[in-house]
Amino acid sequence: MMNKYARITGTGSYLPPRRLTNADLVSQLAAQGIETSDEWIVERTGIRARHFADAGMTSSDMALEAAQKALQAAGVDAAEIDLIIVGTSTPDMVFPSTATILQGKLGTRGGAAFDVQAVCSGFIYALTIADALIKAGSASKALVIGSEVFSRILDFKDRTTCVLFGDGAGAVVLEASAEPGILATDIHADGKYTDILCVPGHVNGGQILGLPLLRMDGQAVFKLAVGVLDETARTVLAKAGKTEADIDWLIPHQANIRIMQSTARKLKLPMDKVVITVDQHGNTSAASIPLALDAAVRSGQVKPGHTLLLEGVGGGFTWGSVLLKM
Ligand code: UT7
Fold first, then answer.
1. Residue 219 Cα to ligand 1 middle (Å)
2. 265-312 per-position pLDDT tens digit
3. Model confidence pTM above 0.90
């Protein structure tokens, strides 16, 4: 049986307890001869602090914490979940998927569980797929999660990247519903740009070949991001028959406050309609949007009935957006 809509019924998130302010990170890097400053980081990115997971904490551990909070908020038992999708580029293992490991930790069985690899667009891709599967009648209650431990793939000798990222997880429960719900989705990729944001290392014959650390051409990513975010915002609004004026909250991928300001300006949205967590979380890749969504729900910014535009962009190059009613 086809379902009319898929609707978010609960949100949850998790940040590892170890919090580093810019000052903490700047002094740690200085001890290794790497020069940066709070001023540079704040001015160029808007980031003031980030959380790093301690050794031993994995993406599935953080996903579990976020999922349990989302299930509690939705009033759904883990056993009712028939689909788990985890957006992550920092999985626990090469395989099996972080989603199946999470399913084991939740103590459930039988529903589909898999990961989506779309880097910082991972949650937008995961939500798009879950929406489609629920509408098709293939699932009825989904956990859609972004969870990342980017601290594990950062090169702390490269100041152009190591100050930007953080760890964390965000989750939503998405349920079949007669009421909206997700209104429209829009996802894209351009494989010409694999080199501008990548971790080239890979497992081969018992060894890692190539650098297993993040490399980014920040300026190239910045320029592409600003263009595609505007494009996908207009596309998803048009698909839903809505306009900028219908948006209560823009929840963009939290990479750089300047990219978010540019997106808002192009959509003629004031910054007080933009959810901002990049200052406290840094860039948590696939986790950034569900982390920001949960923060905004729990702070009372996002209320039932609000229309939200979620937007992601990242390595691949990938990008996309989801327009939804809470
Ligand atoms: O999550 C996926 C999506 N990712 C993104 O959206 C990231 C997009 N890119 C960006 O956010 C920005 O390009 C960055 C924040 C990465 C860099 O900002 P920028 O304004 O593009 O700076 P830049 O790369 O042009 O570097 C400006 C200067 C350079 O020095 P010179 O060549 O002008 O002397 C850099 O060497 O800043 C220097 N610099 C630093 N200085 C102090 C680069 N990193 C640092 C640092 N501390 N950490």
1. 7
2. 999 999 999 999 999 999 999 999 999 999 999 999 999 999 999 999
3. yes
Closest residue by Cα to atom 39, ligand 1, is 160
Residues with CB under 6 A from ligand 1: 36, 40, 44-45, 120, 159-160, 163, 218-219, 221-222, 225, 255-256, 259, 283, 313-314
Query: What confidence tens digit (pLDDT) does each residue in 218-229 have?
Result: 999 999 999 999
d(CA 108, CA 103): 6
Q: Is 120 part of the annotated catalytic residue set?
A: yes
Per-domain boundaries in the chain: 5-180, 183-325
Cis preceding-peptide flag for 96 (omega within 30 of 0): yes
CA of 279 to the centre of ligand 1 (A): 16
Q: Convert the pLDDT of each residue in 33-87 to its tens digit.
A: 999 999 999 999 999 999 999 999 999 999 999 999 999 999 999 999 999 999 9
Same topology between domain 5-180 and domain 183-325:
yes
Can you identify the CATH homologous superfamily of domain 183-325?
Answer: Thiolase/Chalcone synthase (3.40.47.10)
Measured between alpha carbons, how far is 280 from 283 in angstroms, rounded to an integer? 9
Residue 159 pLDDT greater than 80, yes or no: yes
Q: How far is the CA of 208 from the centre of ligand 1 (A)?
A: 28
Look up 162 and say whether it is catalytic: no
Burial of 158 (0-12, 13-18, 19+ CB in 10 A): middle
The protein residue whose alpha carbon is closest to atom 30 in ligand 1 is: 160
CB atoms under 10 Å from CB of 218, counted, come to 16
CATH class of 5-180: alpha beta
For ligand 1, the distance from its centroid to the CA atom of residue 81, given in whole angstroms, is 42
Nearest to 99 by CA among 140, 130, 131: 130
> Which structure tokens are listed for 259?
């990219």
Among protein residues, the one whose CA lies closest to atom 20 of ligand 1: 44
* Options 120, 162, 198, 256, the catalytic residue: 120
